[in-house]
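sry for the spam today, last one i promise. struct tokens for design, 363 residues
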């Protein structure tokens, strides 16, 4: 059966009515989560070829969402690699994106919950960050804020004292460019207005170590892809709020007020530690529900691996005593779900090395 006549009729109708149809295809790999990459590749390549068949129909737009690790394994003999990559857009949350997400949630609550119309933050100390003179010396500003930069956002007016390196001319600074994004500096200060700048965490050998709050968000909320996952960040923020609420309910003598640094010391280190432990436990438990077919093997793997976080292919196989086909399928499941990362996927199975993200390290 040929569907080309139907496609043409649909295109004619959409064009005559000035309508554009968008078809979004996502999560196509989940139904073969137990299978290996060979099956997934066949399905995804068929989808890419289907999408290509609609290129001549200008009012019908296909948008396929494919995981990066699967996209890299596709074969482009028929479709053409250049034609696919020319239309490809990488959807990746950068560290700055994550900080903006957290900062927006904080100042949204400042405005709508606390009713705060403006915030004053300490000056930006990095001399490599300059501010355009037009935004610093705004003649319409009152004298008492003339040396502050007025940042207008949808929710809140934030005044941040700016540090301008007087020894450089405007042309010199423009030629060199900013080395620190101004908006990111603002977001960092919003975050540390309620989060501590430094927190404790357990390193890979189990010792307590201090790291910055930004390094914590960067490294402790990623699955095997290595990129911080916004969904996990939101889950953790909710858990922090839950633990903090319980903490202050049990300690009514402790109040959270604006201090001399213009910050609200809301989330104490002990709160963040407790929240992370509970959050990590919930995430780990959710992995046992992903596939009933592998639930028993997954629980056995967690039990036997102990605190070990790096494995060879043979080591995983020996832990579970699976045959070759089952071992490959189980490892494919762990990699697909984000629990396990293959460090050298181009090697044959027997030579592959695997690691577990920090999120799932046993402390």
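last one done:
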């Amino acid at each position: 059966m040929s569907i080309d006549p139907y496609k043409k009729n649909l295109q004619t109708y959409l064009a005559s009515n000035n309508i554009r149809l968008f078809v979004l295809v996502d999560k196509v790999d989940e139904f073969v989560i137990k299978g290996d990459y060979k099956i997934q590749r066949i399905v995804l390549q068929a989808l890419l070829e289907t999408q290509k068949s609609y290129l001549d129909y200008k009012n019908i737009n296909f948008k396929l969402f494919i995981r990066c690790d699967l996209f890299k394994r596709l074969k482009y003999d028929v479709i053409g690699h250049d034609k696919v990559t020319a239309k490809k857009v990488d959807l990746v949350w950068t560290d700055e994106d994550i900080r903006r997400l957290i900062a927006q949630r904080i100042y949204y609550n400042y405005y709508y919950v606390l009713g705060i119309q403006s915030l004053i933050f300490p000056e930006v100390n990095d001399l490599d960050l300059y501010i355009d003179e037009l935004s610093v010396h705004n003649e319409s500003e009152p004298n008492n804020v003339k040396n502050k930069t007025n940042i207008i956002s949808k929710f809140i007016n934030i005044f941040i004292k700016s540090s301008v390196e007087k020894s450089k001319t405007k042309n010199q600074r423009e030629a060199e460019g900013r080395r620190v994004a101004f908006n990111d500096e603002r977001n960092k200060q919003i975050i540390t207005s309620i989060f501590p700048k430094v927190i404790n965490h357990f390193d890979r050998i189990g010792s307590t170590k201090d790291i910055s709050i930004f390094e914590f968000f960067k490294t402790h909320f990623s699955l095997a892809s290595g990129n911080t996952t916004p969904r996990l960040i939101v889950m953790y923020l909710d858990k922090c709020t839950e633990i903090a609420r319980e903490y202050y309910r049990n300690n009514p003598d402790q109040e959270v007020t604006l201090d001399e640094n213009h910050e609200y010391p809301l989330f104490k280190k002990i709160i963040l530690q407790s929240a992370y432990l509970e959050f990590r436990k919930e995430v780990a438990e959710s992995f046992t529900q992903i596939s009933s077919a592998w639930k028993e093997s997954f629980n056995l793997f967690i039990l036997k691996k102990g605190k070990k976080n790096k494995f060879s292919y043979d080591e995983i196989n020996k832990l579970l005593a699976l045959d070759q086909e089952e071992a490959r399928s189980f490892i494919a499941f762990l990699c697909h779900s984000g629990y396990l990362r293959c460090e050298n996927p181009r090697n044959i199975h027997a030579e592959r090395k695997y690691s577990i993200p920090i999120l799932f390290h046993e402390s």
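Confidence is low (pLDDT under 50) at residues 126-168. ok im logging off now
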